[in-house]
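Subject: for your reference before the review

Hello V.,

The reviewers asked for a structural picture of the protein, and I figured it would be easier to keep everything in one thread rather than splitting it across files. Below is the amino acid sequence we used in the manuscript, unchanged from the supplementary table.
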Amino acid sequence: MELKGFPRKFWVVTDPRKQGHENPEIDDIAFEANMERMELQFRGGLNADDIYGLYTSESQAKRAAEKLLGLISASQKTAWEITRIAKTLLSEK
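And here is what came back from the structure prediction:
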């Protein structure tokens, strides 16, 4: 596939609220990709709706990821932590 004007490598930022990341960090939601890697990501379960944005540079992607992580409320982070603790306790039984 040819994408005119689009770089061979680009950066992807996913929305952790849609993917169920628990207590995400920038490296969890921002990654470098190319068309082949995106094909693998989609085969692995990534949906187009999970993508927050595509960026031509790492710095753009990291800024977007930082902004997105800042939008996640404290209550959501607390809910993720409670879920993590519950899974740990259940797996110990």
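For the response letter, the relevant points are probably these. The beta strands are 10-14, 30-33, 51-55. The chain has a mean pLDDT of 85.

Happy to draft the paragraph if you're swamped.

O.
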